[in-house]
Amino acid sequence: MVSTYGRLTTPPRQSFFLFGVRGVGKSTWARETFPDATYIDLLDERLYQDLLADPSLFAQSIGHLAPGDWVIVDEVQRLPALLNEVHRFIETRRLRFALLGSSARKLRAAGVNLLAGRALKKTMFPLTAAELGGAFDLDRVLRYGSVPLVWTSEAPRDVLEAYVQLYLREEIRAEALVRNLPGFVRFLPVAALFNGQVINIAGIARDAGVARTTVQGYLDILEDTLLVCRLPACEARARVRERRLPKLYWVDPGIVRAVKRQLGPVTPEERGPLLETWVLTTLRAHAEVQELYDELSYWAPHQSQAEVDVLLQREREFLAIEVKSTDRYHTGLLKGLRAFDALPRLARRVLVYTGHRSFVSSDGIEVWPAGRFAAAVAEGRLWP
After folding, report:
1. Are both 104 and 176 inside the same structural domain?
2. What confidence tens digit (pLDDT) does each residue in 286-301 have?
3. Within a domain: residue 383?
4. Within this chain, do residues 257 and 302 fall inside the same structural domain, yes or no?
5. pTM (predicted TM-score)
6. Buried residues in 214-242 as b, exposed as e (16+ CB within 10 A)
7. What is the pLDDT of residues 217-226, one digit of tens each?
8. Could you tell me which residues come within 8 angstroms of residue 378 by beta carbon, excluding any fewer than 6 positions away?
9. Do 156 and 52 share a domain, yes or no?
């Protein structure tokens, strides 16, 4: 399959890991970027079984290559033991490796630190507005997401419905990441309902019918397989004591809707968390190629309805972003950003909404349509 869209990911000159959820386009990008590379696909079951039985076959297949040649190993997490040979060939033969995977969990357990300093770590995210260009459609992204596997399909709903089963089959069952598969299946839609919310371990455990300690392990699996991230609470010490529990965000609106089994038109109740999901993933994706921030968090004081959805810190400066899924502006939308104005070194306050007008409030808060936000991030104009 030929890639339709240019990706933000740029090829390093040295060996690297490239992680990303299934269907995000890692294999397509690697094949196009390194057309002359030796390609080893561990999803090829026959090859996988051969290497599992005799790992020395890996060395035999690349032993003839010259220094500087590239080797692509796809789904590297399926055989972590190959990293020993990768390490050896980097050191002794100066080969370069693109190591693709959808999870770092098994690699960490097998000692990926052996490659510390010898292989960079990069992440590929669903398609951003900048990558989609003129094809970008926010309403479609919020309904179906922008994972290339889904975006390029003529039947995105069907593909998304199959995506969850693919994840359970290839990531969870095949890699034996959980002992209690029925419990994990019950947990998934409950965790999806918490998208954009403060994580409530007790509530998730109760609704999924599993132990609290089990929920924590399941959340770790979702994070390790790159489906979610936990956005920490900022302790900015502005005026009042801040909330300390993290929020849960899925990587793609379409995936979280598929896990909830809710793929019809986006409801008003869904739209806010889904828009926040898109904003956060946009920031994380561009941070792979730009120095957007040193830390990413949210801010919400105790005993207050005020909140700032995303807080970026770069060196000693802060940039606050509030996200609202409304087409109509009113001053009440600025409540959280106004409550945050006491923080020293606050470089910019931005309200991102789904309306069309851009302007600045009387107290200096900038109001941006979603498209302007995406363009500012892509063009490096997010910070003043």
Report:
1. no
2. 999 999 999 999 998 7
3. no
4. no
5. 0.93
6. bbebbbebbbbbbbbbebebbebebeeeb
7. 999 999 999 9
8. 128, 129, 130, 286
9. no
Calculated CA dihedral for residues 328, 332, 337, 341, nearest 10 degrees: 140
**Max Cα–Cα distance, the chain, nearest Å:** 70
Nearest CA among 225, 228, 241 for reference residue 193: 228
pLDDT at 240: 44
For residues 47 and 98, membership in a common domain is answered with yes
Do 283 and 292 touch, CB atoms closer than 8 A?
yes
Q: Are residues 57 and 135 in the same domain?
A: no
Specify whether the CB–CB gap between 35 and 11 falls below 8 A: no
Say if residue 255 is in the same domain as residue 135: yes
- Does 247 lie in the same domain as 147? yes
User: Which tokens in the block code for residue 312?
Assistant: 């970026």
CATH code of the domain containing 90: 3.40.50.300
- Under DSSP, the state recorded for 170 is I
CA 352 to chain centre: 20
Q: Strand 38-41's sheet: what is its strand order?
A: 38-41, 70-74, 96-101, 16-19, 120-123
AA letter at 349: R
Are 119 and 17 within 8 A, CB to CB?
Answer: yes
Q: Write the CA distances from 383 to 35, 261, 377, integer angstroms.
A: 37, 38, 9
Q: Which domain holds residue 346?
A: 278-378
Q: Are 288 and 358 found together in one domain?
A: yes
